Amino acid sequence: MKISCEEASTICNKSQYKEAGFWEIMKLKLHILMCKTCAKFTKQNTALTSLCERAGLNTLSESDKEAMKKDLEKHL
Amino acid sequence: MAAHELHPETWVDQYADYLFNYAVARVSDAEIAKDLVQETFFAGLNSAKNYKGDAAERTWLIAILKRKVIDHYRKINSKKGKAEVRINYSANTDSEGDWLEEQVADPFSKDGDNTIENEELGLAIQECISKLPKKQSLVFNMKTIQGMSTEDICNELGINPSNLWVMIHRARTALMGCLNQNWF
What we know:
The structure holds 2 protein chains of 2 kinds.
Chain A: H1 5-16, H2 22-34, H3 36-55, H4 62-75
Chain B: H1 11-27, H2 30-46, H3 57-77, H4 99-103, H5 111-130, H6 134-145, H7 150-157, H8 161-182
Helix pairs in contact in B: 1-2, 1-3, 1-5, 2-3, 5-8, 6-8
């Protein structure tokens, strides 16, 4: 059941995208009980996720950006 | 103040998403917002010689975009009759009563504040994302904002999942640091 901090952070990142399995989350929770650094990391990471959700971010797709770049280059 | 310079070849990578978010919040239509961003870049190129360098590149571009948004609203309102404001009481005519009370803004509603705050938050995050290395910001955008699956991203970029998680990790750590400075 014991995992390293590196594994813990990976599980934490995955769980931000709901891609961590049940046992992985159990392992992470156990690890957090013993490791203050990872507990802090998890807290901040979760906060980042909720900030991103709240902000309702938009992004242009890469193909749109490529098209924009090409158009701009013509004008340079 | 140090003089700023324009680097049009980096505009799309650095500012497209930032400007796009700004525009979407104002015109609430992705297609129109995209066109406005494009027009902003063109206008920037055309008036590059007027750039004096006292404002940062991004501030300058935002100022152009602001004009573009205003122009957009002028254009769609220019047809006769559209400029006049009509207030109809309500679609269902059988409701009668507190006409005025229902028209004024609810002073207890916090929606307005929240929208403004969320928009600022969005721009703050976008600014932090634009400081990331290109590859990291690309992966973070695909994963977090476009919500693509790990598998799709790996296929598209030709990387393996552990690469992806390492990049996500670095991006997220950098973003946490950046937002801690700029937001909290």
